[in-house]
Amino acid sequence: EAGVAQSPRYKIIEKRQSVAFWCNPISGHATLYWYQQILGQGPKLLIQFQNNGVVDDSQLPKDRFSAERLKGVDSTLKIQPAKLEDSAVYLCASSFQGYGNTIYFGEGSWLTVV
Amino acid sequence: GESVGLHLPTLSVQEGDNSIINCAYSNSASDYFIWYKQESGKGPQFIIDIRSNMDKRQGQRVTVLLNKTVKHLSLQIAATQPGDSAVYFCAENSNQGGKLIFGQGTELSVKP
User: Fold this and answer.
1) Closest by Cβ to A99, choosing from B46, B89, B98
2) What tens digit of pLDDT does each residue of B32-75 get?
3) Cβ separation A91–B91 shorter than 8 A
4) Residue B46 and residue B36 in contact, taking contact as beta carbons nearer than 8 Å
5) pLDDT, tens digit, 9 for 90 and up, residues B72-85
6) Across the interface, which of B49, B51, B98 has its CB nearest the CB of A98?
7) A109 touches chain B (CB under 8 A)
8) Which long-range contacts (CB under 8 A, 24 or more apart) does A52-56 make?
């Protein structure tokens, strides 16, 4: 079974530029998550989708971050404009139906803002 | 607010010894707990989970213990191997919102 796919794996941008990350979840998984992981910390949930609807985006900095999952499968996370403090790993994860189901993570997209 | 924390940030063990990684949680509504292993440069990898109606669950070389009275979770790794070196995270989940909350992590280092 293929895992969660993410791209790009690494990205370096200057502050105030924009960046987009793509995620393809495990086939058949209705729930998709984007987490931000700052070095030395545990992942923090940014947004959770159930199919193509948003379940939780309470910790998404909406003035600069946006995410979509238009067809209920792939998802894109965008940052515009980027700040230095956005340097982190952006992890995409998926699960069959959300709560109580195992959440599987991708390898992450490493962002450095300079 | 709700939080999940770990007692020790680093743990160093000898190869072949048993490892115990501890975790405290504060949200009494949490009823599903997961341990993840994260190797350098990789995403978190599911190890084992436990629901609140259990106090112990065993996997291959790993055992998770849950003490709801003191809101404590532990991961035991038997016969620790160099390949077990990684950062271990506990995470809690509640059906009140369903958000998975991670702790800071414990770095396990296995000495040959």
Assistant:
1) B98
2) 999 999 999 999 999 999 999 999 999 999 999 999 999 999 99
3) no
4) yes
5) 999 999 999 999 99
6) B98
7) no
8) A55/A31, A55/A98, A55/B98, A56/B97, A56/B98, A56/B99
